[in-house]
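Slide 14.
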Amino acid sequence: MPLLQTARVGVAGLAAHRLRALLTTLGIVFGVAAVIAMLSIGEGARRQVMAQFALLGIDNLLVVDKPPPAPDDEEQGRPFSPGLTLADAAAIREVLPGVRRVVPLRIVELDVQSGRKRVSASAVGTTPDYVAVLRGRPAAGRFFTSSEVDSVSRVCVLGAGLARELFLLADPLGERVKIGRDWYDVIGVMAGPPAGAGDRLEDVRDTDRDAYVPVSCALQRLPRKVGESELHRLVAQVGDTDRILETAAVLGALVARRHRGVDDHRLVIPQQLIRQQQSTQRIFSIVMGAIAGISLLVGGIGIMNIMLASVLERTREIGVRRAVGATQRDVLLQFLLEAVGVSFLGGLIGVAFGIGLAQAVARYAGWPVAVAPWSVLLAFGVSAAVGIVFGYYPARRAARMDPIDSIRYE
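Slide 15: predicted structure.
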């Protein structure tokens, strides 16, 4: 019998027992939905984390200022450290040939004003290398130059979110804003953060509400607390990422020696953080995949049980088909196609249900989700495979029935 005709017979068999077919699909529906939802949540989390690590830069090293531990009675004579300074940045550039650029960052939380509009923001003192090292770029206007840093020019570049709050739809270029006690000319507006950045990880700043000024202005004109370091961060861009760990060790030793061993800073290696996150993500995917696999296994067992019952119930039908010329192969294909059809239908419903479940998680739990096309293809492939694997035994049993005994079956 041609394969197409066999398929029609199989579809007719499913249509004749709609409720049974629908109930049989439920295990596959829930299993596939679990696969889609879990993969979507995992993929969304991966994309969010990678978007945030992109802000740090895989070829960067961060030296982050932190308050030194409070001295006890036995440590009153310990060495003094001024914290992170521009001199540290200069020393790193001079001593470490593997470092291409060093960007200082002084970050001050304060109000930024334009006309009568006043908003809370962060003033960031830095240098022109910020654009190259931290992958920022002006969407309009330009960034300030080295000569403007040297001349302590009162110019600024606004983050995209801060510019929207201060000027709404108006063009901020050429306008003046008050940062702290001084007025600055707006010469540029930065592009917004990458899509999917979401909630911030530690050491990843929300730069959308920053106002960038020359580091010389930040040191001379922005408020500074007593005992506070000149800088809050140093970002060193490494030329050879294959040797980033060796460079990090030398950089850490250099800064520690300059600070006389005082524990007033920490070294952050984004590349290591990415590897740790990827390892965690793999474990999460394995666990979630195992849970979804168990659901599919239960669904497959359900298909096998229902198909075995169907074979027993349709024994006389099988005998009649064999008597009028159907071969064992025809019967095998008929029941196998029925099993695959049920499983594929469950996969189709499960994909739709899983996508809806993932969107519900995103809406009500606030988790990032991303439905990757490969996950949908995987779900369909797995559901079809489940139908073949768990439908083969009932189909083979039906094909091997004796035609005469089958016709006599009551």
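Speaker note: The first strand starts at residue 60 and ends at 65.
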